[in-house]
Specification:
binds FE2/S2 (inorganic) cluster; 30% helix; globular; DNA polymerase, domain 1; single chain
Length: 213
């Protein structure tokens, strides 16, 4: 299984674990920090933002699905947490399952590459292009990959599905004529507990045919 926890292009490839261990935080300058009462706002360096790690919140703007979204998060907040719990309205299509970088259910695209959002700090995603399952098709206008999953019954409970769809989308956007092996490899970091792999890969191949027309 592919380890997606440290995959680029997460802006600094800094995992939550590394952060909590006091590792290096990248790309965090000039952010505004809300004080404990939520009203005070000051300009901070990334070092001072780190110092607020367990208390203060940092006001940042994330570029999600082509829109600028303002959000206030603690520096320790994961991108997944920001999407699901801090945005208003929330984006809950990205799923929380293992919360440890093992299952791929939380996969989003950052600058076009699949990333485990449960292992990526929200602050590290600032300045990068984030795409979630909500940014693909709409119910009445599905993307090629979403359409293929429907056609092939590529899901049962559906918890793993957004992650697989994002991973396959990333592969086909960079490699429209991907082979079955390449498609399987692109999903190496994704697990389906319901065991719908045959249908998932049928869907991936169907999408590849559609994507390469
Ligand atoms: S890899 Fe993030 S929830 Fe499993
Ligand atoms: S459809 Fe249930 S985990 Fe994949």
């Amino acid at each position: 299984m592919t380890d997606r926890t440290n995959q680029p292009p997460s802006p600094s490839s800094l995992s939550r674990r590394a952060f909590l261990k006091g590792g290096v935080v990248a790309s965090l300058t000039g952010a505004a920090v809300a004080g404990p009462n939520g009203t005070e706002s000051v300009s901070v360096t990334r070092e001072s933002a780190i110092a607020t790690s367990l208390k203060g919140k940092v006001a940042v703007t994330l570029e999600i699905n082509g829109a600028a979204r303002d959000v206030s998060v603690e520096p320790r907040t994961t991108l997944l947490g920001a999407l699901r719990d801090h945005l208003e309205p929330a984006l809950t299509g990205t799923k929380l399952v293992c919360d440890g970088g093992n299952c791929g259910a939380c996969t989003v695209l950052i600058d076009g590459a699949p990333v485990a959002s449960c292992m990526t700090l929200a602050l590290d995603a600032v300045g990068h292009n984030i795409r979630t399952i909500e940014g693909l098709g709409k119910p009445d206008d599905l993307s090629v990959v979403q359409e293929a999953f429907c056609a092939e019954d590529g899901l049962m409970c559906g918890f793993c599905t957004p992650g697989f769809v994002m991973a396959i989308t990333a592969e086909l956007e960079s490699n429209p004529r991907a082979t079955l092996d390449e498609l399987k490899n692109s999903c190496a970091g994704n697990l389906c507990r319901c065991g719908t792999y045959p249908q998932i890969f049928d869907a991936a191949v169907r999408a590849a045919r559609g994507a390469s027309k």
